[in-house]
Amino acid sequence: MTLNEFNDLDRHAAVETVRPALDIQRWVDDVVDGRPYETTDDALATARNAAHPFTDAELDQALSHHPKIGERAAGKSKEADLSRNEQAGLGESTEDIKTELARGNTEYEERFGQVFLIRAAGRSVPEILTELQRRLQNTPEDERTEVAEQLRQIALLRIEGILS
What we know:
The chain is an all-alpha fold. The chain contains nine helices and no strands. It has one domain: UraD-like, CATH 1.10.3330. It catalyses: 5-hydroxy-2-oxo-4-ureido-2,5-dihydro-1H-imidazole-5-carboxylate + H(+) = (S)-allantoin + CO2. Residues 7-160 form the Oxo-4-hydroxy-4-carboxy-5-ureidoimidazoline decarboxylase domain.
């Protein structure tokens, strides 16, 4: 979709276009209500600014839609399609790495009570595993900050993809 097409959508259609990037209603509203945008960079700036800060409830809402890293997103939603495409770029992994990733996901969930979230686009599985192991050392407060940043990065990449 072009930026002009996005600008011309009725509000409902624009909301449905943006929501798969990040299902946080306040964020969606800010991005949609910021139209019309002159440039994609303007839309991305609004998306970035609307993502600061996320409340704990907003983070929990967004995390409820994300599959475990290394697992295929279920469903036929646009968000599930985006997640599958992002994780498909990771390529194949050895069984040892898959086992370590599954073990790390479980340890992370036990420690932080939520799914491990990381921007998969542009990263290899070994890099993600290294980040997972590093982040397991975070305090819960520091981890919430990292999760929020990862959500912002994912949302911005998705918005950029939607508008290109």
